[in-house]
Amino acid sequence: MPSAVLPDRGVVSVAGADAAPFLQGLVSNDVAATARGPVWAALLTPQGKWLADFFISREGARLLLDCERAQAPLLVQQLARFRLRSQVAIADESAAWDVLAAWGDVAPEGAGGLDPRLPDAGWRVLRPAGTAAGDADAAEYDLHRLRLGLPDGSRDLESGRTVLLEAGFDELNGVSWTKGCYMGQELTARTRYRGLVKRRLVPVAVDGPLPEPGTPVLRDGAELGTIRSGREARALAVLRLEAIRSGDPLACGAATLRPEVPGWMVLPQADPT
To answer: In sequence order, what are the residues at sequence separation of 6 or more whose Cβ sits closer than 8 angstroms to the Cβ of residue 29?
Structure first.
């Protein structure tokens, strides 16, 4: 079973008597589901745009958020703004933990469990710093992620701009439609029920040199999106739906891209008009 320590991941802890209800009112998914394993969720702006995403796991009475290491201080700051009278303590514990990803059939030891996004995604595990050792490296896990079409935080999403349903949070179990109110819920629900998604983050095959993130994707000179994270001949790109549906080759820098819609992704039906 391949496994890799992910050095660009950090951990934020939320502890105290009100930890679960505090997060429940802020994040996109149902915190109560952490009783069964990790939950993938996002923190949004009041306008429903992405700020951060993370895996929430229980460790005793505490909740641990597996997040981007570079975002951990900002995440602590953002959460602390809403603490008010809640009995919670929020801390950046990135130095105390290693984040391990494993993709295979055997569960590694540690806090966490199955990656809730897809069965093939594998496992997310937290271990005390210095105790985790993988038999693969983070680059190998990155390729595994790209093949599945899974977003990787700010490498693929834009703070204050990305809408969750553009990035697959619905199909990948990152949103609860039954939990009740949370910050940014109104736009997220409206986007779903009114069919307002016009673009999607989708895997692409890259023929040629890998373009820099943010490079425009073109067809016949018209811009249809941008490329995001990538490695070797795989990448993710934010593309307009018509570009994805056509399947036609697209230009990006000196490379040619071809969208490859994964089996888990559900695209809106094309407007017959």
So the answer is: 39, 40, 41, 42, 56, 173, 174, 175, 176, 179
CA gap 65, 74 in Å, rounded:
13
Which of 226, 240, 235 has the alpha carbon at shortest distance from 268? 240
**pTM, whole model, 2 decimals?**
0.95
Nearest C-alpha neighbor of 153 from the set 269, 6, 261: 6
- Give the start-end residues of each E strand in the chain: 3-5, 9-15, 39-44, 50-59, 62-68, 89-92, 97-102, 111-114, 123-128, 199-207, 216-219, 222-231, 234-240, 250-252, 255-259
Q: Give the closest residue to 11 by CA, choosing from 96, 81, 79.
A: 96
- DSSP, collapsed to helix, strand or coil, labels residue 33 as helix
- Cα(38)–Cα(211) distance, rounded to whole angstroms? 34
Per-residue pLDDT of the chain (273 residues; tens, 9 = 90+): 799 999 999 999 999 999 999 999 999 999 999 999 999 999 999 999 999 999 999 999 899 999 999 999 999 999 999 998 999 999 999 999 999 999 977 778 887 899 999 999 999 999 999 987 888 999 999 999 999 999 999 999 999 999 999 999 999 999 999 998 999 999 899 888 887 799 999 999 999 999 999 999 999 999 999 999 999 999 999 999 999 999 899 999 999 999 999 999 999 876 654
Helix (H, G, I), strand (E, B) or coil at 77: helix
Per the listing, tokens 């109110």 go with 181
How do 234-240 and 250-252 pair as beta strands?
unpaired
State the Cα–Cα distance between residues 10 and 71, nearest whole angstrom: 8
Distance, in Å, from the CA atom of 68 to the CA atom of 220, rounded to the nearest integer, reads 37
